[in-house]
Specification:
The chain has 127 residues and is α/β, with parallel strands linked by helices. The strands form 2 sheets. Strands 1-4-3-2 form a 4-stranded mixed sheet, with helices on one face. A 4-stranded mixed sheet has the order 5-8-7-6, with helices on one face. The longest helix has 13 residues.
């Protein structure tokens, strides 16, 4: 059995995604206002946890002054699976808030307040 098959059988899933933020409140406002994530735990001014539909969380943590910023124009991203309807709604909000960063047939790209690239995607992951 391959390592990949073992990981799949053991139910390996994302527990949390930790994102570092220059301005915690501004970043939380983005994720709750644009992606409609719900705050489930707050330890301000250090961190806030936002719930994803599968039970995992996005942990937004205050970045220290000596940490490097996200490189301008970085194409690394975190992509979230959404319905086509939700993708269209997020696209509309992203355009109105000037955080829209492009799109493909299945994915809308955005930039959060730190310049981090995000995607909301309907691309099928079956098989």
């Amino acid at each position: 059995m391959t390592q990949q098959e073992k990981a799949t059988q053991q139910g390996l899933r994302i527990h949390h995604i930790a994102l570092r933020a220059r301005d915690l409140d501004e970043t939380i406002a983005f994720y709750t206002g644009v992606l409609w994530l719900r705050e489930v735990h707050a330890a301000r001014p250090r961190s806030v946890w936002l719930a994803l539909a599968d039970g995992s969380v996005v942990m937004v943590e205050a970045r220290s002054a000596d940490e490097p910023a996200i490189p301008a124009g970085s194409l690394e991203l975190v992509a979230f699976r959404v319905s086509a309807e939700r993708k269209a709604e997020i696209r509309s909000v992203a355009l109105s808030r000037a955080c829209f960063d492009g799109e493909t047939e299945h994915t809308v790209y955005l930039r959060d307040p730190d310049g981090r690239r995000l995607g909301v995607s309907t691309y099928p992951l079956d098989g």
